[in-house]
Amino acid sequence: MNIAAHPVVASLTPVFLLIGLGYLAGRMHWIRDEAVKDLSNLVFLLLIPALLFRTMSSVHFEELDWRPVGAYFLAALTLLAVSIVWRGFNRGSVVMALAGTFSNMVMLGITLVELAYGKAGLVTLLTVVSVHALIMLTLGSIVLELAVAREARLGGERTPHVLETAWSAFKGALIHPIPLPIISGLLFAQTGLELPSVIDKPLQLLGSAFGPIALVLVGVTLALTPMRGYLRQALWVSASKNVFLPVMVGLSAWALGITGLPLTVLVVAAALPVGANVFLFAQRYEVAEQVTTAAMGLSTALALVTLSFAMTFMSWLN
Asked: Is residue 156 predicted with pLDDT exceeding 70?
């Protein structure tokens, strides 16, 4: 058998090559640190919304299977709760638990799943992505605010009501460049209309640019990520994200009767490395910033092995 023609190899190779080129660009300082933020804004505010809206603009509600969403979050939220209890309830433990359960579904997952499993696999992934940020970011914000409130009460300070915090977190996660274009695209699809070519073509070109730019940006970020001194803690977070979560998601999906391509996409999504949004939490709450950064880098590097294994195992299983 020609190894290069194997579907797992064929889909993973361009992904890791582009990440490798981005890593080289970062190490050689071809892209300045200040430019990384601008590129991130370009990807998140323009390229991703174009891709997500166009993909979902032809998907009808009756074609969607919401069981994968239930299976994924049953496992993810269970692991999140166990991780917080294991480390103790404080800001640092919540941030590290989020890092161990928050997948890089957008920057890495969308391109990888589309390459490996086509539009059918992408629809399953985007069904999860549509509520991934909403659920994880909202819940993360609430739990972190509860941790802050607990610390403040112990210090004798006054804190906002938890419902005020929950509403603020919900609005912030809903009005976001990920769920908003997915929901908008789905609503447009229900009208039965088709995008005019004069609009569809630019969206297609913008969406096509997303994959390579996002993957190169992952590599640049990896090159600029310091890991020295935090490897042990980062290794635990990476094990949770790259190994424990996909195993738990796979078992949860199997228990709910999910098989075939949806099961594969769920496991692969869970096996993706730590998503960048976790660092925003660490930065905002001024806790575990170095560990989170190290975990993102180590998790991405280890994904070369763990993600390859997950995809190969699922292709064998199916």
From this structure: no
Which CATH number fits the domain that encloses residue 207?
1.20.1530.20
Q: Name every residue whose Cβ is closer than 8 Å to that of residue 282 and which is 6 or more positions away in sequence.
A: 95, 288, 289, 291, 292, 293
* Contact predicate 295/237, CB 8 Å: yes
Using 50, 70 and 90 to split pLDDT, how confident is the model at 159?
low
Residue 98, pLDDT above cutoff 90: yes
- Hey, which residues does 103 pair with through a beta bridge? 274
Cα 301 from Cα 158, distance rounded (Å): 43
Q: How many CB atoms lie within 10 A of CB 33?
A: 10
pTM, two decimals, is 0.79
Structural domain for 38, as ranges: 3-317
pLDDT of residue 244: 97
Whole-angstrom Cα distance, residue 21 to residue 4? 20
Each residue of 139-163: b (16+ CB within 10 Å) or e? bbbbbbbbbbbeeeeeeeeeeeeee
pLDDT tens per residue, range 172-192: 555 566 677 878 888 898 888
- Cα distances from 143 to residues 91, 133, 281, 283, 309, in angstroms, run 9, 15, 11, 16, 33
Predicted confidence at residue 13, as pLDDT, reads 82
The first and second tokens of residue 262, run together, are: 């949806």
d(C-alpha 162, C-alpha 152), whole Å: 13
Query: Residue 60 has which token pair?
Result: 């009808």
Whole-angstrom distance, CA of residue 49 vs CA of residue 300: 24
Q: What is the pLDDT of residue 74?
A: 96
Q: How many domains does the chain have?
A: 1
